[in-house]
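Input sequence (376 aa), recorded before submission:
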Amino acid sequence: MKLDRKEILKALETITIAGEGKNMVESGAVSNVLTFGDEVVVDLVLHTPAMHIKKRAEDDIKKTIHDLISADAKVKVNIKVEAPEKTEIKGRAIPGIKNIIAVASGKGGVGKSTVTANLAVKLAKMGFKVGVLDADVYGPSMPIMFDVENEKPVSINVDGKSKMKPIESYEIKMLSIGFFTAPSQAVIWRGPMAAKALNQMIFDADWGELDFMLLDLPPGTGDIHLSIMQSLPITGAVVVSTPQAVALADAKKGVSMFMQDNINVPVLGIIENMAYFTPEELPNNKYYIFGQEGAKNLAQDLNVPFLGEVPIVQSIREAGDYGRPAALQTASPIEAVFEEITRNVVQETVNRNESLPATEAIKITTMAGCSAVKKN
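Predicted structure, token format:
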């Protein structure tokens, strides 16, 4: 089978790039088409680096060639982005979003994403409009926890601009790098590329009106955290830890990061996860496997609020794995636990907004430090 280049170009004239009026051939987006027997290579030049636009263009080209030319054609799309370098985003607020809460942990494996998911569903059940940005670029888990692993954000037109429409589950809007990669695909990016992807999910999305946006940050105190705080004026941070000394040492560093003078993000409090184990057949028994009240004592030492403790319960893990956060279990002990914690987070947010000025985003001034810029 030999493919005809002219027929392929004619077929590509039926496709338009999101946000542009002309078809991709007329607009010059298709820079070249090469055919080799049953293989076709399409070179595409785009003027926007937006992930959802590139993915949609590639999918449209493959589908059109398979539908109009040959279902057996082997199609490869090479995409080159020619866009002027934009100045780095510094502290640009998102219109319509009232509170941006960063959920962080000093180390991995303490259940930060589980806590974020359950906070989100409880806030939504309380009547708040909630969004979740999965900023854990290298280990995105929100798509699994909300049973939307196979969903893909679509491009919509908002005031003449192409925007990503966040995926919705349990009345919560969310975006995650996991929506743009295969489940088995590792994200191997350097810091600047990860930061650019996060900026796209923050500012190139139609979040609408939100009372709370929860940021599920990666573990530690690294480049992603700095990029987020450089991009957004964060209302406050919630730090998640388990009770043992090793986790508390890292949680202390996480709190310290937010409280530094050149960052100055208010810490709303600490949540102790995996605080104790209670067997289902012995509901009144508590076994402190990782130590007792370690995070609570840390909160007192650091003079930050203690927001509550979450026990080790099998149903919490199962609920996360099956994509239905445990806080949705109406009238259950687990729902009561997360309701108390969520109410404390809301109260601390109210207290913070009444007593402190708007958080300032930060900008990098030297390789060694940061300074504050532009209020929310």
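Checked by second reader. Residues 84-90, 364-368, 371-376 have pLDDT under 50 and may be disordered.
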